[in-house]
Each structure stands twice: as C-alpha cells, then as structure tokens.
Write a structure and sequence with these properties.
single chain, mainly alpha, Growth Hormone, Chain: A, 23 helices
Length: 430
C-alpha cells in the first residue's frame, strides 16, 4: 500500500506539469478577448460596446452548449485523446480568423471564437476534475490555484502581445477612419487593420497542433476520477444515489460558477472599456486586462500559502466575496484612476472564487463526477451573459457606466456569498 502511494506521488508530477501548460493555453485564449473587444469595434466599425461584447458572448456561451457533450467525449475517448482533440479544435478555430479578416465578416470572426470556446469547454471539463482528484479534496483549491498562476500569467502576457500587434496605433487609425468618407481608401485602411490577425493566428494554430503531438508522445496517464472520488469520500449515501439531480449542491455550485466567471470577466475584460469611459490614457485601455490578472496572481499566491493550512476553502470564499463587494462599491463612488485601480483590484478578490467553488460543487459526487464537472463547466456561460447585461444597462437603459457596473456585479457576489455560507452544504449528508 505504501509503495502504491509513493508511486502515485511520483506519477502525479507529469499530469500536474501538463495541466499547468494547458491552463496557460486556456488563459491565453480566454483573456485574449479583452484585447479583441476594442480591436473588433474598430476593425469592423461597430457602433456600440454592446455589439463588441458579443466577442465574449461567442466565447463563453460555447461552454453552456458543449460542456455536457464534452463529458461524453471524454468518457468515449479517454482523457488523453480528449485533450488532443480539444487542442486540434482550438487550432482550427484560430484558422477561421483568417477568412473572417479577409472577408471583413464579423459573424465569421465570432464563429471562430465560438469554435475556440468549444475547444476550451472540452479542456476545462477534463482538466478541472482531474486537478481536484489527484490529491486530497481538501487541498484541491490549492492545486487549482497553482495551475491558475499559469492561467493568469498567460492572461497578463496576452494583452501585451495582442495590444502591441492588433491595437498598434489604434488611436491614430480610429481618427483617420472617422475622417475618411466611405470609399476605397476607407476600405483599404480597414483591410490593413484586419490583416494583422493573419500571422498571429496562423502561428497560434501551429503551436496548438504541435502541443497536441507532444501530449500524444508524452502518453498522459489515465485516471479513473469516478473511482478515486468514491474511495476518497467513503460515504455510503453517495453509492445509493441514482441520479445527478439528487445532488442539489452541484447545481447551486454551477450557478456560483456562473456568477464567478461573470465577475471575473467584468473585471478582466471590461476594464479596458471602463478605462476608456473614464477618459484615461490609451495605455490603461490596452493593458487593463493585464493589470486585473496581475492582481489575480497576487490572490492566487495568497491562496497557495494559506489553503488549507490557515484558512478553509469555504472561509476563503466568504472573505473574497465580501472584499469584492467593498472594492466594487469603492470603484463606483470614486473617479478617474482611483476607480480604475479598484476595478483592477477585483482581481485579488476574484482569484480564489473558482478554486474554492469548483471542488465544493463536485464534492461527494462519486460515479457522477464527470457529469457533475460538465454541469459546473456550463456555468462559465456567465461570462457570455453578464457583459451583455452590463452593456444593455449602460447603452440601452442609459444608466451611468459606473452604476451599471455596480448593479451587474454586486448581486453576483451576493449569490456566491450565499453558496459559500449555505449553498454548498444543501443536500449533503456528512
């Protein structure tokens, strides 16, 4: 038995390294949206922020539709083949950007983002329960936080890369486009702007195909997450369950993930638009996502150092939601750079939300773990819906953008606080 445990500890290193690399990839493509929003608004001559926010909708809504099919794919193909398929799909989604740019088609561009989102749904459905199960469930938040460091590091890098490539000279180009009447010169300027995606996304596609081959050669060890979870839990009532609907805490957890991703996207992807409306210099507009994710990194390191040695997952979740509410209110009732800084600081509050919510949501599911994970992943659709809610409040209802942010974000935090205090225990017999 001891030798088996020692071998398990040794072999866990390889999947942990690969999972961290996958979280880096997820972070790169996910947080690319923050830089793509101002780019598509300019390149496709969109009239409102609400139209540009469909970049987020196309990416995150894929999780709602693809999470459960992803669970079926993983069951049929196995963990390794599921990862390979998702990376290939991610590369294909990147290649769709090329004809979208050449045709000047925003709809085709959104299709490419949706395909990428579908690939990331498959990746998320596989990776998150894997990280939760390869060690004690009580320290799952710590492991996810470690992987999250790689995810958010990618998120810090991507606005810098995309901002310097896609948004280079954006202010001058925007002024020139507005000054030109419709005609050949106007169209040529837009086409030159759109052509910036060509080399970038071809390179990204090639890298995804290469990494898929690396995983195939590395032979990622398969893990029976259902079996591991049943042994770890050891509760007879779990074995007696006959339906996924007998775990109400799972569905409450999925809704918590919905609001978790909603507030993450509001702070991480909307901050550039927020900074623009505060009339801050373009530097803050271009790299706002990097500032928020830098703050998230700080939050992750706090989680790695404190969970579960000093504070439990549940307690960390409660503290983070309260801090998030305080920062949001402060941002609303201040102005200029101060308000912007508190939006970025939401990254600290948001960092430990996902790492704490996910293991609490799938805890005790036994043989239903894979399906439960997919249901949790469906909650990522919050990133699709909530920016549109914010855009609607701001652009259609006419609410001041700071108060619109308050009305969108605070209710989300309040629900997460409910899940942290009560929701995660409902239906459990421990």
């Amino acid at each position: 038995m001891t030798n088996s445990l020692e071998n398990s500890k040794r072999t866990a290193l390889l999947p942990m390294i690969i999972c961290c690399a996958l979280f880096f990839i997820l972070g790169f493509f996910t947080w690319a949206n923050g830089a793509l929003i101002p780019f598509v608004k300019l390149a496709f001559s969109l009239e409102s922020d609400l139209q540009a926010f469909f970049v987020l909708f196309a990416s995150y809504i894929a999780y709602f539709f693809l999470a459960l099919p992803s669970s079926v794919i993983i069951k049929k193909t196995g963990f390794e083949n599921g990862l390979i398929f998702s990376l290939i799909l991610l590369g294909l989604g990147s290649l769709i950007f090329i004809p979208a740019a050449h045709q000047g088609s925003y709809v085709l561009f959104l299709l490419g983002i949706f395909v990428q989102g579908s690939a990331m749904a498959l990746l998320q459905t596989a990776v998150n329960p894997y990280l939760s199960i390869i060690g004690p469930i009580e320290s799952a938040a710590q492991r996810i936080a470690v992987a999250g460091v790689f995810n958010k590091t990618a998120g810090i890098i991507v606005p810098i890369i995309l901002g310097s490539i896609l948004l280079k000279g954006s202010e001058e180009i925007s002024q020139k486009i507005q000054s030109l009447p419709p005609g050949p010169e106007h169209d040529a300027l837009l086409n030159s702007l759109l052509s910036r995606v060509d080399t970038l996304y071809i390179v990204l596609a090639i890298l995804m195909f290469i990494f898929a081959a690396v995983i195939k050669l590395a032979k990622m060890p398969e893990v029976d997450v259902d079996k591991e979870d049943e042994i770890a839990e050891g509760h007879e009532n779990v074995l007696k369950k006959t339906s996924i609907f007998q775990f109400p805490h799972l569905f409450l957890g999925s809704l918590a993930i919905f609001f978790c991703v909603a507030v993450e996207v509001m702070a991480g992807d909307i901050i550039g638009t927020y900074g623009h409306q505060l009339s801050l210099p373009s530097f803050f507009v271009k790299y706002g996502t990097a500032f928020t994710l830098g703050c998230m990194l700080v939050g992750y390191f706090i989680g790695i150092a404190t969970i579960p040695k000093i504070v439990s997952q549940q307690a960390a979740l409660r503290v983070c939601t309260i801090v998030g509410i305080i920062f949001t209110v402060t941002a609303t009732f201040t102005s200029g750079l101060t308000s912007y800084i508190f939006i970025a600081l939401l990254g600290v509050a948001n960092a430990l939300l996902w790492p704490a919510i996910f293991p609490l949501g799938i805890k005790g599911l036994g043989r239903f773990t894979k399906t439960g994970s997919a249901i949790m992943i469906m909650g990522i659709a919050g990133g699709a819906i909530w920016p549109l809610v914010y855009g609607y409040l701001k652009d259609q209802v006419g609410i001041d953008f700071q108060h619109a942010f308050l009305y969108a974000v605070v209710p989300a935090y309040l629900y997460i606080l409910y899940f942290a205090t009560k929701g995660h225990t409902i239906g459990k017999k421990i």
